[in-house]
Amino acid sequence: EHANLVSLHDFYLSPPCFLMEFVPGGTLEATLRTPGSLALFSWDLIIRICIEIAEAMRYLHNHEPQVLHGD
Fold this sequence. Notes:
By secondary structure, this protein is of the alpha+beta class. 37% of the residues lie in helices and 15% in strands. It has helices spanning 28-33, 43-62; strands at residues 8-13, 16-20.
């Protein structure tokens, strides 16, 4: 487990779907796709988000056993 990763609880083959941890407030992607949302982000927040994403990716790449991940 990592503070900057959403947990996968289960998955189903038919129909294909993933059961993920609930994220209050929605996803970063949904926030970024909302018109005008970038105006709400300070440079400090943008840098913090980038650092937290990098920390999560480092965790995934160094985890044993290996963790499969998408985007």
